[in-house]
Amino acid sequence: MSQHHPGPESGTPARAAAVPDFPDLPEATVARLPEYLRALHHLAESGHDTVSSEGLANAAGVNSAKLRKDLSHLGSYGTRGVGYDVGLLIDQIEFVLGLTQRRAVALVGVGNLGHALAGYAGFANRGFRISALFDADPGRVGEHIGDLVVQHIDDLPELVEAEGIAIAVIATPASAAQSVADRLVAAGVTSILNFAPCVLSVPEGVDVRKVDLAIELQILSFHEHRKAALTALPTRGAAGLTALRGGLSTPGPGEAVGT
Amino acid sequence: MSQHHPGPESGTPARAAAVPDFPDLPEATVARLPEYLRALHHLAESGHDTVSSEGLANAAGVNSAKLRKDLSHLGSYGTRGVGYDVGLLIDQIEFVLGLTQRRAVALVGVGNLGHALAGYAGFANRGFRISALFDADPGRVGEHIGDLVVQHIDDLPELVEAEGIAIAVIATPASAAQSVADRLVAAGVTSILNFAPCVLSVPEGVDVRKVDLAIELQILSFHEHRKAALTALPTRGAAGLTALRGGLSTPGPGEAVGT
DNA sequence: CGCGATTTGTGCGCATCTTCACAAGCGCCT
DNA sequence: AGGCGCTTGTGAAGATGCGCACAAATCGCG
């Protein structure tokens, strides 16, 4: 995974326009690159050297035209008539995402969810290293989780500095989240992943992404409600119900609905 | 969600827009309603009876015009010159989201993450009840978590039927996720929240939402990379760096960077 | 009873995102 | 060498979403 991106100038011919490599990608594209990356690693492990846009698009669950346009923003790394070089594309995407070196991440809040996140192998496998755990509860400080020890949140500044942490995860109750965010920012953290169900207010220049598990379920609930209304009401809707409940025998060509 | 059909006229009356209670909300609106709902409950607990679009928009972290447009899709539940009735709005949103009755949810995969999700209070507080836990590992079957007992996944069909489960959460390793999804669909589940880092293929009519924790971090990593490039390069960029790292003393009026 | 202050609901232009469709490029085969 | 089939990269059209700005509606007050 820690493959090196091609040398600054050597190797491939000069990047079109890529001055210091900052293509200013559309947000929608950025959000999909990690999915492509995961699919590419999977392909690489299966022994594929090249892949067509159609093949990669399938593996990533998107439309092939969209995938090509996304990749075109990174530069021209495909070969017409052939496809994309899997290894090269992995390197390029990892470079753009800033994953050429493993990033240190702090995790604040070692409760129910925090414990699970601290032990989640998916982070370690995909470019990150949980470098420090924090909690405000003195009863939890000192606890060992994996090969880390829970620190008191007052020690945040020193550890952020020492470990070179720029990204933090908040897994505290909502009531504590804003205060924690303030302290993280004060300590120098510039990106926050927030699992607490609340809105965070942070200074300009700090990025916040939010994951709210209940919200995801509520969105699904809406669609359940809608499906129920559609199959119950329309007189000609009987076919709809049959299709819904009966379609299970053909799990093949369905569509996964993402993000 | 599940595939819009571009062919408007033929086939089903797809454009029939308004089923009595079904406003055909834009997806973007649906995704925000839960956030409004959370903010409204918070306001209600603080004793507010009414709230202006500006106030609610602040609490939910969105633009007030956007909020008004979102709510207008539900109908006219505001009073000009006054604002929105908090209680009424809560009822309306909960109805549209299908939360008027607590929904039963199945959780498959009682590993690291699954344990945390099973114990997550946020589900219970916001319209859901985890009604059954499943795992494929016989070593885990029978384990007590909260007041539930882990069932073997072979018992899925009976319990889905008995508990009236329409929504399921997948918290298994990626390698098992597709197979689990197939079995869920076969058992009658029509909405899936997938925590496994892989693309699920499901029949039409089944909704899938995906939460990939590593992807969220990778998106943040991209922005970190970009910020680093921007502050390192421009000669006059010293100011930018100062602003970034030094802005901590004024955590007040900042903006959360979303979506 | 009418007026001004306030706030909703929405029309409209702009931006972003998606999808189609096709020319240009590449490798292979004859 | 030349033609042929395959795949990329992209222009353009369409869809969706966003936010401004303002008319319409309501309340409270003199």
Q: Care to describe what's here?
A:
2 copies of one chain form a homodimer. Chain A has 259 residues and is an alpha/beta fold. Chain A has 10 helices and 10 strands. The first copy, chain A, has helices at 27-45, 53-60, 64-72, 86-96, 112-118, 121-125, 156-163, 174-187, 213-232, 238-246; strands spanning 50-51, 78-79, 83-85, 103-108, 128-135, 144-145, 148-152, 167-170, 191-194, 207-210. In chain A, the strands form 2 sheets. Chain A has a 7-stranded mixed β-sheet with strand order 6-7-5-4-8-9-10, with helices on both faces. A 3-stranded antiparallel β-sheet of chain A has the order 1-3-2. In chain A, a hairpin with a 2-residue loop joins strand 6 and strand 7. In chain A, helix 1 packs antiparallel against helix 4 (86-96), helix 2 crosses helix 3 and helix 7 crosses helix 8 (174-187). The longest helix of chain A has 20 residues, at 213-232. Chain A starts with 26 loop residues before the first helix and ends in a 13-residue tail after the last helix. Mean pLDDT of chain A is 86; it is low at 1-19 and 236-259. At the A-B interface, helix 1, helix 5, helix 6, helix 8 and strand 9 of A face helix 1, helix 5, helix 8, strand 9 and strand 10 of B. Chain B binds a DNA duplex (30 and 30 nucleotides) through residues 26-29, 52-54, 63-66, 68-69, 71-72, 76, 78-84.
- Mean pLDDT of chain A equals 86
Kindly state the number of beta strands of chain A: 10
Structural class of chain A: alpha/beta
Low-confidence runs of at least 5 consecutive residues of chain A: 1-19, 236-259
Widest sheet, order of strands of chain A = 6-7-5-4-8-9-10
Oligomer: homodimer
Count of DSSP-assigned helices of chain A: 10
* Largest Cβ-defined interface: A-B, 100 and 104 residues
